[in-house]
Amino acid sequence: MKYRPSKDEYYLNIATEVARRSTCMSIKIGAIVVKKDQIVATGYNGAPRKVRDCYEIGICLRRKLGVPSGKNYEICRSVHAEQNCIINAARAGVSLLGGTMYLVSSQIVNGEEKLVDAYPCFICKKMLINVGLEKLVGMTKNGSYKEYYIKDWIAEWREKDMLEEKEQYFIDYYKDKE
Length: 178
Prior knowledge:
With 178 residues, the protein is α+β, with helices and mostly antiparallel strands. It is built from seven helices and six strands, in the order αββαααββαββαα. It has helices at residues 7-19, 54-57, 61-64, 81-92, 122-131, 150-160, 163-169; strands at 27-35, 38-44, 100-109, 112-115, 135-139, 145-149. Strands 1, 2, 3, 4, 5 and 6 form a six-stranded mixed sheet that branches. A hairpin with a 2-residue loop joins strand 3 and strand 4. The longest helix is centred in the first third of the chain and has 13 residues, at 7-19. The radius of gyration is 17 Å and the shape is globular. The termini are far apart. The model has no long low-confidence stretch (mean pLDDT 90).
């Protein structure tokens, strides 16, 4: 019997192909948004349109400066795949409200690509909430996938007040109110 991929596998395979367009020297990420079983937007991480990317320049400034992943995004040339997906939808006049984002990520180590768990950064997570997506399906490092419902992120942040702020910056807004 011939194998036929599930819809989630099919869309993750397409996001994998989108990621191949990445212009980042450290990580390749591809994102697509699907609504009513139709791809409505795609995006990959890379420098803004018509701007030189890290490959053209020959270095990644963040790596040269020893900046760890997840820190100092402002000095990165790339726009994140999730952000580009949202931007591309806006440029085409397409609503993402109620859609599902499929996200694939592979890290480049010594010239070799290795799958890593695909999950949005803190900034992209806020954008995915505001754009009105229903869920995110992220490929895992072992090639399977995990579903995340945006309403769960919202509920968690309402209850725990954006936990990342407490963990990263040691801020507890409600400490003195208890």
